[in-house]
From TrEMBL, chains A, B:
HAMAP family: XPRTase (MF_01184). It comes from Aneurinibacillus thermoaerophilus. Xanthine binds at residues 20, 27, 156. Homodimer. This is Xanthine phosphoribosyltransferase. The gene is xpt.
Length: 197, 197
């Protein structure tokens, strides 16, 4: 997605060989126009999958998931990382480790919002090790529903999350795939990688 | 906002005298069409204030803040409740207590995303005791910017947050003001309350 790549080139900040900061438009400050374009692009790419619901994880996935769901004309559910005192109902729960934050969260979705037989599109802002997406996919499986796709805003293709997900048979679409930013320069990989199913 | 009130009547679930669950469309599952309408309504109500940026707090404020910012044609910043390992930069920090979750969070906004002289619209999903909005307003003050308004999706008018904010001189617009839901029945108050400035 050229608009996104251009934004990454202009505003992305390479901190070290593994960390790219895009907090000026994606995960602290948000550019709403860009986020609408991101949602439209996800909707276009997954138009043929019959998505019935979008699933993401708080907080940074919410904006892209919302705009994608709007364009796909379905609802969005965001998994909670901390069980609210109000969530005293039956829930699907799984463990997700964040390498960036160096913490493991118990991720929760209330059962009433994820029934069986749904066609779920998982959306997240970043794909690195694939922990979050794998966790959400486990929840979808627990619910007896199907993951019809995984949409990622920025994939760090030099980490193994994309490979893990594709080898597990998931259709992964990343709007920007970064091959490397070693040396401080972002180099993009091709966007499309055939999935293995 | 009649559409929102209708949704609350249809899907809101009164847990007890203080807690109304609206997790089917606002803070766990999100109805994107309703959220766009909410953003439009905020943009309409604050059209005369010269907003330059929308500020909210993760996670449940993000969706309404994003759609409002889209319609107002400005960027949105969401304050983080947990400092990411990536946020190794100068930041505004304040303490915010959540009575629902019974925890105090250190709320952070990087200084580079909140300069002086901005006209800030604060958006949040719920107003009860006003802790979150007061915390965000303190951060705006620290930055040398002005809070031109506080937009709330659902105000629990029987708790004192709205009174505190209005008596502090803030212009508060709540799209649905709930007078009481004692006895399990939601009763709405008038939406507009004159602010004191």
């Amino acid at each position: 997605m050229e608009l996104l790549k251009e934004k990454i080139r202009q505003e992305g900040h390479v901190l070290n060989d593994k960390v790219l900061k895009v907090d000026s438009f994606l995960n602290h400050q948000i550019d709403p126009e860009l986020m609408m374009a991101i949602g439209e692009e996800f909707a276009r790419r997954f138009a043929d999958t019959g998505v019935t619901k979008v699933l993401t994880i708080e907080s940074s996935g919410i904006a892209a998931a919302l705009t994608a769901a709007l364009k796909l004309n379905v609802k969005v559910v965001f998994a909670r990382k901390k069980k609210s005192a109000l969530m005293n109902e039956e829930a699907y729960v799984t463990q997700v480790h964040s390498f960036t934050k160096n913490e493991t969260n118990e991720v929760t979705v209330l059962k009433k919002f994820l029934g069986a037989g749904e066609k779920i599109l998982i959306i997240d802002d970043f794909l690195a090790n694939g922990e979050a997406a794998m966790g959400l996919a486990r929840i979808v499986e627990q619910a007896g529903s199907e993951v019809v796709g995984i949409g990622i805003v920025i994939e760090k293709a030099f980490q193994d999350g994309g490979k893990r997900l594709r080898e597990s048979g998931f259709r992964v679409e990343s709007l920007a795939r970064i091959a490397t930013f070693a040396g401080g320069e972002v180099q993009f990989a091709e966007e499309c990688v055939k999935h293995q199913s």
